[in-house]
Design brief:
about 90 residues, mainly beta, four-stranded antiparallel β-sheet, three-stranded antiparallel β-sheet, globular
């Protein structure tokens, strides 16, 4: 099988190499920093950016939030079906 990812540097602009299912948690960082979030069911997403800032944004169903995320907080997050894009 040909693997187009083999031997190639992972660019921040994509495509992602994997998705990380996310369970929001106020105290635990993601196992790997996500370069973006995918939201299945819209609502508010509260998160900590790779810059260390806490943000809350409203986002619609089946949306992509293109921001580096270290942690998704349970407090304030109403959106569900969250996945992190990994490179």
């Amino acid at each position: 099988m040909i693997n187009p990812f083999e031997g190639r540097a992972a660019p921040l602009s994509g495509p992602a190499r994997d998705l990380l299912p996310i369970t929001p948690d106020d105290n635990t960082d993601l196992s790997t920093v996500a370069v973006a979030l995918f939201v299945e069911t819209g609502g508010t997403v509260s998160f900590v950016t790779v810059a260390g800032e806490t943000r809350s944004v409203s986002i619609g169903d089946f949306s992509i939030l293109p921001v580096g995320v270290m942690r998704v907080l349970s407090t304030g997050t109403t959106a569900s079906g969250l996945h992190g894009f990994l490179i």
